Amino acid sequence: MFSSLLLFLLPVVLVSASSSQRDDATINGFVAVTPAVPASTYLPTTNNPSSSCFPAIGFKKPSHVPNSIEGWWCDPSTEYAFVGFSYEITACQSLFQLQEEFADIRNTFHSRYVRLYGACDRHGFYDDIITAAWDNSLGVHALVWFGFDGNDEWISRRDSLFRTLHSNPRAKFVTRGIQFGSEPLFDLVLPPDELAAQVWAAKKNLSNLSIPVTVSELAYGYQERGGAQDVLDAIDFINIHMLPFFTKSGSTGDRAWPLVLNDLNWFIEHGRGKKMYFDENGWPSVTSDSVQPNNPYAVASISSERAYYDLLDQHCVDLKNVVGGGVGWFAHIYSDDQEPGYGIYDASGKLKFSFSPRTSC
Length: 361
Prior knowledge:
This protein has helices at 2-5, 19-33, 95-107, 125-135, 153-167, 171-174, 192-205, 219-223, 229-234, 257-270, 302-314, 316-320; strands at 81-88, 113-117, 139-145, 175-181, 213-218, 238-242, 276-281, 327-331. By secondary structure, the protein is an alpha/beta fold. It has an 8-stranded parallel beta barrel with strand order 1-2-3-4-5-6-7-8, surrounded by 6 helices.
């Protein structure tokens, strides 16, 4: 994803404003464009937002897999604010490491989900993900990884994942959704009509498991393909890449809200009231060969990374009130040894800053 972003200067229309003017304008603009559309019902849900549903904080996991998925998942309207981490799996972590880090993700940060990033083609790896997620009461946004090489390995990855989803009895109880990604529209992996067809086919394949399907994508990925409304119509919920550091107007993390709002409002306008998540979402603490700004004044620093997440916390109520049941956001990514500069932990396993975002407001 990051290397491909360097090939383009993402267009953002933004009116300059002082800090106080910017806050007032964004709140007013946000309310004005939010349509009165009922919350999405893309998953079997319960109306109880308490700890009696999975994967709410405080949920008491049963000792055995339930007989039915009915009433298992929390209502999407309770899944706003911080929901968890993107988690890079290219290292093909052992089950022991998955258990250790998923426990940390759940217990230290009160996460409800992990969103997988990258690919591990080891046989049985997603079974290990399911085991670690079940044992630690975490839901999973699983991923069919296309990569950046333009090959067709994603087909075998898709088929392998689907076989596991059908064969593992715990799979449907921890897999919140399947993503096609990362950024297949932006990277021109498939044209929109073919990508939409893949989504529809996956939904049919997984219909008896009640596992919804989405695409993990930038707003600009849709926009540069004419809006790709056929893809937006096909997906069950919207997973949004929110990476304001790369925009032409990127500066510091504390000034990113207008950039966030610019993309969010586009999805509000075109998403037909579907539930939304910021899945690949963050601000880097350092640059690298594959992480370079499109604005020379964009600052990569630990303070900007922290300020970006603090900014999302400050706008918790705004995100909660978005059509479709509010916006839940992931932190990209769990550790710098997974994606340099984006981790909450540095490469040596130490927290880069205090991180205790709100899970409700």
